[in-house]
Design a protein that fits this description.
Two copies of one chain form a homodimer. The first copy, chain A, is mostly helical and 709 residues long. Chain A is built from 29 helices and six strands. The two termini of chain A are 54 Å apart. Chains A, B: GO terms for molecular function: calcium-activated cation channel activity.
Chain lengths: 709, 709
């Protein structure tokens, strides 16, 4: 790829970014778009629908940027919780790393690379006509002493990243503890989920749970709620809710809509009446089903609540029964966070569904290679010309070929990548997790490894699955193969940062899809529709930032030119996500920083991958002393990781006894606790089992008993 | 190797076995050898030193065999504990497996192999002149339909072994729980070991422990004992004990020994007086040191005892402090089982010493390949002749060459292997384990993997470390390489079973080394020397049995001829170990079956290794459908293992809450518990800190205050 092709891509994407920024600056001030751009503020009642028109509303203004810039960590923590803070810390962490690496890369490594003569001499007269390879390590002469500078850079950056990782882990760990100390008593702190409850013949799950915990935890046991299978019920309730909504819509609409012929020659009926009867019928069904379910469809799982956090922790951490596959305990999620549909109570079923999901992930990975290969074909213009000879005439136009090699491949890839997070979320959800947060955490991991495998390795080795797998079955030669293939793809990944990073982040700001949805549904919506405030899809955004981190770390000494683009991306992401957290996203749950270990692991993996590439490169460049001297680095990095696992990870899995007991004692004499315990007893009841009542309320539109969610 | 060479080896070893059996049968009846052959009975007072002579004493008798045969599991359990029972179950488990595999192997596979014609046709006229390879799978024609019989055998035996493993794991797990229920209250059930205790400036470890546990475990905390560094003290005590012994020896000996010249021209001194003074001096030192140690040399570790087993378990399983590397808890070992010398209290030091030990193990493995290579050279006579031409004339004698190829290699190997268990035990002991049992368990694992690597793989691949490692760095080709190399070494391993298995087990019975030691020290011993009852070195014997299990499982379908020899070995081992448990070995500690998971893992590894070989063999034999159809087998085996890990392993790590609470409640109102708790408070005090007093007691020989052990 030539410098000019890169510049084309940068040009297109910068244009798009500016366009998105300008449009956003204007549209966000229009009251009719408040639902898209400031749903959170609307929901919180902080933004009123001003209808007064003024000219200022039509001019783009950067006010929101300075507003976002001024936000402090305390603001984010208080408004969006610790998870949002952790997310922002990922970005600031990456900013720190790549500013440091960028200074080394641009001011030291880049000049060294470009004065090399292995490939071409740099053509200063016409910079844009140089190949990008001139700026990579490939241009340094084999055996050159200059390579020791790259060697030192690898060491220095590794040490810098490890130090930063250590301090960051410590900081977030302490924040997590502080968050727990400052939190109000919450149901999930006092509750555990018990699965695989053995039931003796003739007695129910409920009696079994009660007798077990009354026997073995008599002083701390408070209450329990048995989990029911309510899939059918939930769909009934959903149906009645939909019916209720259209009924509301009908009643508020013009009166001629209220009558319609049933069938072709049927008589005109009062639709309102018709719907109301139908609704009553469904509600009857729901009530029947509810009494049925509460009697029969018990699963062998229950939420068990305790009188203290420590009591819950003790019951959770100790193996309860002689058979370790019975009475399997885990921490309960927040009541709103519970995800019921795919709940599996048996130990064996959960295990099998996990295996199935692993297989599905492997299958998905293999299938996904097809679009990746197509994309790869595009970067090799000559190959494309051979395959489609009729394109030859078009491809000779400079601009077209530049767009095709510089922009199109990563755009296609990005579109395909868009569907991965929802698929992974679905796979995680059938894996037997009980909460949205666990599902997203697991999906986050899946998406991350999927991205690394399918974007990084598939692009680098640009081959079929089998050839990829065969490379990993031959671990001795991995560094050598990486050293050959990774630098060759530098220009693709620089373009990828610009396309996928810059544009997709700005389109996040502009919220294209919600905007389209909002425009499309505007005519069908009634004013009574609830405003849906979205939550940030961590499983989409964290892997993306982390993947750019991986690209930055692996390429910083190979092709330092990637770093400025990466820094621009990170700055954009910083401002945009700060803005979105205050205006758009509402936290759906709070894991109190449990996403950080994923970040840490990904960074460690990036470092070790970078070391493997370095070993290969130095061998390839005939500087074998350097490649030998790199060897201790991955070992030390992994040892460092092992230390961090021991030092910090336990605090992210569970809270220590010290903290739990202190917190319990703080509240021992709090009179508000009695009320809290009353609430706790019913906190985990299935919303589908709550009584619902829509039909009678359709007459009085303003006070619907929306007890079901 | 020819059948005749194998028969030579079998002949020599059978002769040795018979010799050992006869000698044992005679010597065990001689009162002067009671210390060697029935030390346990002597120590328990069940065997009196009969001095009446009769002829029967000089005739070998098989009475001990029938006696051992009649022992039931209950007898072993009550006399030698659950660990001994588990050990015997390893042997009976192997017996069951190889009887089943043996029936298939000898009656189905062996005939199939020998009618094959790939290598040679079998020579029925002169059976002993056939190469052993005629009886292996190598003799079956490539692509032959007969190979499906081998294929089915692999499936059937795998299923059989897995079923047996499942039932065995379940049986031992239930035995473990039953053992716990029936056990008397023991100090280690109520105690945990806490390491990395943080100490605030100005306060001691003891105060720190007390305030922490009084704050966070107020209802269950009982007492604690801080661990001290007592290495120096222990060597002083050892010295004084030795001095005391020689003093006793002097006093009981003839009077002319009591005087000796000091120096060449020095005056004659009363040695008793001299020794007594020296002893008094040392004891003075000990007392000084003791008061010093108890004040200064505290380590940051302590044994903390609780009022209930459940209390101890709760404190042990919950992370105590915000910093997970502080207040690190683990279950305490039995007081007699504590191993003090290499105690390291800090988290980081323990971690580093573990790394060092891993490195040492790798180094040892590499160094050990030298003798293995020498042994390998011996099996290739032609190579030997080239290297040492002067041996040519000797090597042409049939008997010599048969001894060299059939017997010598495994004898040398076995002698070298003798030193491995003590080295591994030493390495485990510096790894930071706190008890003999943990050390032996860890050493058991180390010896097992060392044996598998250095005997199995080194022999099979018969190459340098580098070529071995390079094979494992190329995992795709492992089955292929195994398929070529493993059957080629069948005859070596058959000889190995005979030499190492038969002879070393019978020499265990005969106890050669203790016998020589006893003969050598007989003249120096006084009657007052304590009788030392040995304990069984599990880290030597378990890996040996397991390694034979691995050989049997991997070779049963390749060279079924190995199975009869293996069965003979197992029968020998069964009788001999039963006999030794009653007569010789006294249990030193009780892990209640914690060795079983090692056995289980080793069996699973053997199965998967066998599958890998099968895949390779069937590919080699051009029956690729069979090799594809084997693929699910290792996957299913590993899944089965994973299930067992979840289903049974937790019970081997810790006792479940249910069991602990039931046991606690049983004893709640037992009046004997008050006394037990009194004893518990001091149970973990360092024996080196107990007052000692030898000097004053030398006059009255019959009541020495042997308070120190």
């Amino acid at each position: 790829m030539l410098v000019s092709a890169l510049l084309t891509s940068v040009g297109i994407n910068s244009g798009l970014c500016v366009l998105f920024f300008v449009l956003y600056s204007i549209l966000r001030k229009q009251p009719s778009y408040y639902e898209v751009y400031v749903p959170r503020l609307l929901a919180e009642g902080n933004s009123k629908r001003r209808s007064r028109f003024n000219l200022e509303r039509l001019l783009p203004s950067p006010g929101w940027i300075t507003k976002a810039w001024k936000l402090s960590e305390e603001d984010i923590l208080s408004s969006s919780g610790l998870d949002a803070l952790v997310f922002m810390r990922i970005i600031t962490f990456s900013l720190k790393v790549f500013t440091f690496a960028g200074i080394i890369g641009i001011f030291i490594l880049l000049p060294v690379n470009s004065i090399g003569t292995q490939l071409h001499e740099i053509d200063f007269a016409d910079l844009s006509n140089n190949s990008l390879d001139v700026f990579t390590i490939s241009n340094v002469k084999s055996g050159s002493k200059w390579l020791w500078i790259h060697f030192s850079a690898v060491y220095i950056v590794t040490i810098f990243v490890c130090c930063l990782l250590y301090f960051e882990y410590r900081y977030i760990s302490s924040k997590r503890i502080a968050y727990f100390y400052s939190s109000k008593p919450q149901p999930h702190q006092f509750t555990i989920l018990v699965r695989s409850i053995p039931v003796s013949f003739g007695s129910g799950v409920s009696e079994s749970v009660e007798s077990f915990f009354k026997e073995f935890h008599p002083t701390t046991y408070l209450s329990h709620v048995v989990v029911h299978r309510t899939n059918k019920l939930r769909s009934l309730i959903h149906e009645s809710k939909k019916l209720y909504k259209s009924l509301l819509h009908l009643q508020s609409g013009p009166s001629h809509q209220k009558y319609r012929r049933i069938g072709l020659f049927g008589k005109r009926v009062d639709l309102v009446d018709h719907y109301e009867k139908k609704l009553e019928g469904i509600e009857q069904n729901v009530r029947l089903e509810q009494s049925d379910v509460s009697l029969a469809q018990e699963t062998r799982a229950a939420f068990v609540s305790f009188k203290s956090r420590y009591g819950a922790a003790v019951a959770c951490h100790l193996q309860q029964s002689i058979n370790p596959t019975h009475w399997v305990t885990e921490q309960a999620p927040e009541p709103d966070d519970v995800y019921w549909p795919f709940f599996s109570s048996s130990f064996l079923r959960k295990w099998i569904s996990k295996l199935v999901v692993v297989l599905a992930c492997i299958l998905l990975t293999i299938l996904f290679l097809i679009p990746v290969l197509v994309v790869q074909g595009l970067t090799n213009l000559s190959q494309l010309e051979i395959m489609f000879p009729f394109l030859k005439s078009i491809l000779t136009i400079t601009f077209v070929s530049q767009v095709i090699t510089g922009y199109l491949p990563s755009l296609i890839l990005q579109l395909f990548l868009k569907i991965v997070p929802p698929i992974m979320e679905f796979l995680s959800s059938i894996q037997g997790y009980i909460s949205h947060s666990d599902i997203e955490k697991s999906a986050c991991n899946k998406v991350l490894w999927f991205t690394i495998w399918n974007i990084f390795f598939a692009t680098v080795f640009s081959g079929s699955v089998l050839s990829q797998v065969s490379i990993f079955l031959d671990p001795k030669n991995i560094p050598g193969k990486l050293a050959v293939s990774v630098p060759a793809q530098a220009s693709f990944f620089i373009a990828y940062v610009v396309t996928s990073g810059w544009t997709s982040t700005s389109s996040d700001l502009f919220r294209i899809i919600p905007l389209i949805c909002s425009l499309a549904t505007r005519c069908f919506k009634s004013a009574n529709d609830e405003l849906e405030v979205p939550s940030i899809p961590y499983h989409r955004d964290i892997p993306r930032v982390l993947f750019f981190g991986l690209l930055g770390i692996t390429y910083f000494f190979l092709a330092p030119l990637i770093l400025p683009f990466l820094l621009v991306y990170l700055c954009l992401a910083y401002i945009i996500f700060l803005n979105q957290f205050t205006n758009v996203y509402m936290p759906k749950y709070e894991t109190a920083g449990k996403f950080w270990p994923i970040v840490h692991n990904s960074m460690i993996f990036s470092l070790v991958l970078m070391h493997a590439i370095a070993i290969g490169i130095f061998t390839l460049k005939k500087l074998s002393i350097a490649s030998t001297l790199i060897f201790p680095l991955p070992v030390l990095t992994l040892l460092f990781n092992e230390y961090c696992r021991k030092r910090f990870l336990p605090n992210f899995v569970a809270y220590p006894a010290e903290v739990l007991l202190k917190k319990d004692r703080q509240e021992e004499n709090d009179p508000a606790m009695a009320e809290f315990f009353n609430h706790l007893v019913t906190a985990y009841e299935d919303p589908a089992l709550m009584p619902i009542q829509y039909s009678a309320t359709t007459d009085s539109l303003n006070s619907p008993l929306l007890s079901s969610n």
